[in-house]
Amino acid sequence: MDFLNNILRFPLEELPFVLIVLVIAFTVHEFSHAYFAYKFGDPTAKLLGRVTLNPAVHFDFLGVLLLVIAGFGWARPVPVNRDNFKNPRLMGVVVSAAGPLSNFVLGIIGAFVYALLIATGVLDGITNERLLFAITTFLRYFCFMNFFLFLFNLIPLPPLDGYRIVEDIVPPRLRMKLQQFEQWSIFIFLLILFIPVLQMYTISPLYMWANSINYQFVFSFLKLFGVSI
């Protein structure tokens, strides 16, 4: 048990809740990409069965494993053919942004539910400690992980959504230059993974920002419900 706790990013007793949250967050994220791509005229994801909320088709074992161990990861990317869009650059930005924004919306929903349970006294009324732990742990990770994935996926490094957004915004010449460096992206992620100093200035701030966003929304909802803080 001590060995697992040493290599995992999250406490072992909380890991099941983390995994459940990741399944939901990754599934909605990739579904959002596929859905908007299909609506904008690209049938690629639809033909591959990706316009679905079935977690199995979006699951990427390595991506989830890295998130559990290193603190960052990914789901199985949705293939998108921008040539099928009427306005490839504009619609490409929307499709790329749909994934992170879906996580942001999920985070807000989680913060609302958490604040509502506090404001109505539901959590205070739960006498079963294990049930209380399960509910609060799930909601805490549900809010935090979705806000974290929102921020993480906006990093402008391939294959993340932030990079795809930049690709569609910049002029074609600059886009071609950026594509020359895509092959090095995996090495950048490995450096971040294995060099603590780099992680301190890359992934760690995202954790702090995600927590900050989470607290701000929870506190705002509590104020909305008339709960003094």
From TrEMBL:
Membrane topology: Multi-pass membrane protein
Keywords: Cell membrane, Hydrolase, Membrane, Metal-binding, Metalloprotease, Protease, Transmembrane, Transmembrane helix, Zinc
Membrane-spanning intervals of the chain: 15-36, 57-75, 95-119, 131-155, 184-203
Gene Ontology process terms (BP): proteolysis
The keyword Signal is assigned to this record: no
One Pfam family linked to the record: Peptidase_M50
Top-level taxon: Bacteria
Subcellular location: Cell membrane
Principal location class: membrane
Cofactors required: Zn(2+)
Record keyword Hydrolase present: yes
Domain Peptidase M50 positions: 18-195
Molecular functions (GO terms): peptidase activity
Similarity field: Belongs to the peptidase M50B family.
Protein name from the UniProt record: Zn-dependent protease
Organism name: Paenibacillus favisporus
